[in-house]
Amino acid sequence: MSEHVRSIIAIALSAAALVVIVVGLAASDQPPVNAEERVAALSASIKCPFCNGESLAESGSGVAADYRQLIAERVAAGYTDEEIRQEFADNFGDSFILDTSTSSWALALWIIPMVAMAAGVAVVVSMRRAAKESEEVTT
Amino acid sequence: MIAVLGNLAILAALGAAISVVVVGMRSQKTGDTQALRIPVGVFALAALTVFNVLEVAILTHDYSIAYVANNSADATPFIFLLASGWAALEGSIVLWGVILALFTFLVWRRLDVVDPLGVLAVAVMGGVAVFWFGLMATAGNPFSVCTDVAGGLCSGSSWWPLAEIALPSGGRGPNPLLQNHILMAIHPPMLYIGYVGFTVPFAFAIAALLRGDVGKIWLERTHRWSMVAWAFLTFGILLGGWWSYEVLGWGGYWAWDPVENAALLPWLTATAFIHSAVVQRRRGMLQAWNFILVIATFALTILGTFLTRSGVIASVHAFTQSGVGPALLVFLALVVIGSLTLFAIKARDVAQAPRLDSLSSREGFILANNLLLTVFAFTVLFGTMYPLIIETLSGSEVAVGRPFFDRAAVPLALLLLLMVGAGAVAPWRVATREVMWRRLRAAMAAGFIAGAFAVLIGVRSIAVVIALVLAVYVISAIVVRFATVVAARSEGVARAARTVVANDRGYWGGQLSHIGLALVAISLATTNGLAVRETVTIEQGSSALVAGYCFTYIEPFSIAEPNRDVTGVRIAVMDESCSETKKILEPRVNVYAGGSQPIGTPSVWTGPIDDVYLGIAGGSAGVVDLNVFIFPFQWMLWVGGLIVVAGGVLAMFRKPRSTPRASETVTAPEARNGDV
Fold first, then answer.
1. For residues B664 and B472, what is the distance between their CA atoms, to the nearest angstrom?
2. pLDDT of residue B321
3. Is B128's pLDDT higher than 60?
4. Which of A84, B389, B550, B612 could form a disulfide with B574 if both were Cys (CB 3.0 to 4.6 A apart)?
5. Which of chain A's residues have a Cβ under 8 Å away from the Cβ of B625?
């Protein structure tokens, strides 16, 4: 088989598979999140009071179990995730909400690593540029 | 008596460590290795004695020692008694010290007869040991005798071994969570060997800087030590995750707890280091970067130790608060400031002209991976310290937890996979577009086909599909490369495969680790994205259906063991029609002597695809509330992790380079494999 044919087969197979993936994922609705999954996600995003920094999801303590039960009741009663989190924030303080995406401090938390990444990319690119210049000098 | 013996051994080890430093500094000019014979020998023996005396005290239940009284009990099973020797603050410092002593001894034994760099490196290790044994002699003394008893425990202790002793009636026993699973006896030593092992490349790096001998010799000489440390650290982290999964009952193996992060941080920088070290050895680049990485890795191991032992950050892993914390902080500051100052002074020697011929090359992709790994490490470090930073700056309390780390880690990890596939097959110096395409096109197709297959069988999680595409692409790229290189040889396939690997264990060990990493990535995606979690209430004799499995509550049971009372339920895991029993599971709740809260112990059945994970959520007579978790491809996480470790072990036995090898050379194999 020639190089050319191999490339065409690889491209054709990839393209066909990609179509299946995109169509499959787009056509079907994301499966509904069941109550247990919501409780699991919520308790992973709320810190357990008196539990050494564990979240409600991880802690094996009785307190955590009670609060997970409370979350399950709130979910069953039709509260939104935000309302449930707010209830915990009101009772214990914002620092008990592990999902920082809504806090005003969150911005720096995200921006600074991105700045670090950008700086790193700049260094790598400048390395290449410097190497290129020194090549031009030597040749 | 035993306190006297233990303290004498600590002082002997401390004295010997100091003499290792003094003698090492003095004889580094001549490089006379034999000068260190006695100091190093005495140091190793004394350190072993410290460890053994502590173990003897624990095994003989000598409750006059406060550590023994507060961390072990008569009824504690043997294996957990042994583990008590390092399961709490002071003991963990002893384990650290004895591992460091053994590393020092082994490093010394492998030195050349005349070896200025090696002698100085051993002196640096002695310097690190002076800190640890100094800590043992003071704030973290494991042999403090019990001088005050309250509630059966030692509430007061004195380092002076001949102080008047108050004898508690019996020991408290280890923390229940620590005696709930055999892995707790293995996970910490593995992790510590990894942690402490990075002292060796650090010591050689510092010695190289001190001597102004900044070439690649220190790297060549510490390759195997770095790989040992890296493999053990990987294994230790893996075991920690496994323990968490088997014991904690919430079905997870990683929680971004500050202390888990503390183990991950040096792993990330060390992983960057073992890659960039290859670039320096092969291409003479990244000399300065390697110094930075090895210093960072060592500093992060100290930071991790500080975080666990200072009470600064609330964590389930944290030990009790003590004077050890501030001492560690001072040591950390000394290490960071000292090493970086030294580095800055020698920076001129270290700096070199950049020689990056192309970003599309093996070194280019490794550089990209290094960047991603360090940004990953920085992000985890920043997120872990963020609450502290904000509290210090503004006084307000914030929490950074799983949601942030998950969101930050996933894109970085996926990018890493993309680069791993490309970097694994890229030639050094310059990888032309044609070469890369030829080597990756089949892998790309395989990845997309795997993703399409997953979608066709009903997977709807985008994260799972992306992870699967990238993981299969990485595995295929490596397998195709291996097949190509093997096929290019004239001998039989099996023999050719053996020769190819034997000729370049470093490279193929790395690729084996990459395959393991891809399997881990698949499992991380499926166990998070496709997990089923339900809580069902079952009466005795009846069944409940979850995710295609039928769970039948057979009967409750209870067992009285010497150190704990066990109550549990017997559950039959059956097929969907509730007719064929696949496995009997026994989730249980353990109550330990010492009056702690009950510890739930999940029961897990690993089937060909799913893990069925049962835990008791509650219940009453004849009824059980059962947490049923289904984790697809959970086993792949453990298997993949072990493959990562195995790759590290293979790479340990890299032969010193003599001739160019097929997998590494730039043009020759292309010409040869061009039409394959």
1. 23
2. 59
3. yes
4. B550
5. none
Distance of CA B592 to the CA centre of its chain: 29
Q: What is the pLDDT of residue B651?
A: 93
Indicate yes or no: CB of B375 within 8 angstroms of CB of A11.
no
Are A134 and B313 inside 8 Å of each other by CB?
no
DSSP secondary-structure letter at A102?
G
Separation CA B269–CA B376 (nearest Å)? 9
What is the model's pLDDT at position B672?
A: 34
Question: Do B534 and A36 count as a contact with CB atoms less than 8 A apart?
Answer: yes
Determine the Cα–Cα distance for residues B576 and B470; give it in Å rounded to an integer: 33
Between B465 and B177, the higher pLDDT residue: B465
- Please check whether residue B504 is in contact with residue B647, taking contact to mean a CB–CB distance below 8 angstroms: no
> What is the average per-residue pLDDT within B457-486?
95
CA distance B29 to B10: 30
What is A30-47 written as a DSSP string? Answer: PPPPPHHHHHHHHHHTBB
Q: Which of A62, A93, A121 sits opposite B597 (nearest CB)?
A: A62
The model's confidence at residue B378, banded by pLDDT at 50, 70 and 90, is very high
> pLDDT averaged over chain B?
89
Check CB contact of B114 with chain A, cutoff 8 Å.
Answer: no
The terminus-to-terminus CA distance of chain A in angstroms comes to 41
What's the token pair of residue B308? 């666990």
B408:A113 CB<8 A: yes
Residue B595 binned pLDDT confidence (cut-offs 50, 70, 90)? low
Count Cβ atoms below 10 Å from residue A29 Cβ, excluding itself. 7
> Distance from first CA to last CA of chain B, Å, rounded?
74
- Inter-residue contact B433 to A133 (CB < 8 Å): no
Closest-CA residue of chain B to A103: B398
What are the angstrom distances between the C-alpha of B562 and each of B58, B152, B558, B566?
Answer: 17, 19, 13, 10
The two most distant CA atoms of chain B are separated, in Å, by: 84
SS3 B170: coil
What count of CB pairs under 8 Å joins A to B? 175
Give B633's Cβ-side CA count (13 Å radius): 19
Hey, is B448 helix, strand or coil?
A: helix
Of B159, B99, B108, nearest to B129 by C-alpha is B99
Q: What is the pLDDT of residues B534-559, one digit of tens each?
A: 889 999 999 999 989 999 999 999 99
What are the phi and psi torsion angles at B335 (to 5°)? -60, -50
pLDDT for the residue B600: 82
pLDDT band at B314 (very low <50, low <70, confident <90, very high): low
Q: Which residues does chain A have within 8 Å of residue B359's beta carbon, measured at their own beta carbons?
A: 124-125, 128
Distance CA B74, CA A1 (A): 74
